[in-house]
Amino acid sequence: MKQIKFEGIVFQEEKTYVAYCPELDVSSCGKTIEQSRENLKTAVRLFLEEAEKMGTLEMILTEAGYRKNEIGWLPPKIVSTKLMSVGLAT
Q: φ and ψ at 87, to 5 degrees?
């Protein structure tokens, strides 16, 4: 079984927790943080399995910033996150 690592960012929308994988642009949700993470794992696995069936897995991973080496696929590293804002003209 191939192991592909990915980041999981969790944020809250009212009473729901949303888990998001920025590298692959896949998300899922749950009633708890842990449930949202488990659901994200399932969503990512299904996404990658389908991409493999379609023959597009390598292209998707490459475009997402993954690098292939002798061990497998290395994910891109998130080096910083910061809450930011911009002003809008009204």
A: -95, 145
